[in-house]
Amino acid sequence: MKIGGMVRLAEAAEGPDRRCPSYAEIRDVARRMEATGFDAIWLADHLLYRRPNQPTAGIWECWTMLSALAEATSRIELGTLTLCASIRNPAVLAKMAASLDEVSGGRLIFGIGAGWNEPEYRAFGLPFDRRVDRFEEALQIITPLLREGHVDFAGQHYTARDCEIRPRGPRPSGPPILIGAERPRMMRLAARYGDMWNSGYFATVDTFAASRAAFETARADFGPAAANVGVTALLKVGWADLGPLPAWFGDDPYLTGSADAIANALRGYADAGVAHVMLQYWPNVQAALDRLVNAVESYRSVA
To answer: Where are the alpha helices (DSSP H) in the chain?
Structure first.
């Protein structure tokens, strides 16, 4: 099982130090994850956060930071968890993906979803209606462009007529496509178009069971064609003794405890056939990263 780490781009939701990390700090986290055995780094794609009765929280733009990290690292895979499809034109986004895959030497995992954060759409003048309809059309453009280099498509929301990606990038079929999905229609799209499916935010593997079962139901609609879609899970890991833990990320508790306890939880996912887990840790402080690294090292020592 692969293990990825979320590299934080945003201001903290709580606590006295709410600032966005600098690029130098972001790069240091990514390089440390690469040096300590993580298989991938993952970046979130948002433009801002606004929650009731709280000030706006800022975040750096995902694709710019990921491009810089492609040059700052050499081995580790680079993923987006997940790009909001309707923020960017889908054909242009596929072109960007082919280019970043070239820059990184074939290390990109192209993670994409329909988006959920309405305040950022409103603030930046982007359409928030019919998100899944828009997403399905975007996939009908992005998927053939990345896998075959050509598409001719005209839909209600997007058009790409006789569109080609040239040059193609380092991999003949392009980077793998990961689709974030939590509800039945989105899960069916993940089973139909994705190389990987992702959902979050979970703790131990039993908290993932219902979502996993729902995806297996969606996958069954497509038979053998969807059998090879990899199952991935985003986990929320946190230590309350190091700082406040956001209460607004999912209903499940945080994965917490000693390095060995977290390693045992990771083995539960591996035993369940999960291909990749992504670890998002709180609070965003050095001591929490140290504990996360120790947990991954503990998992690797036995797995």
So the answer is: 23-35, 62-72, 90-103, 118-123, 131-148, 184-193, 209-220, 259-271, 286-302
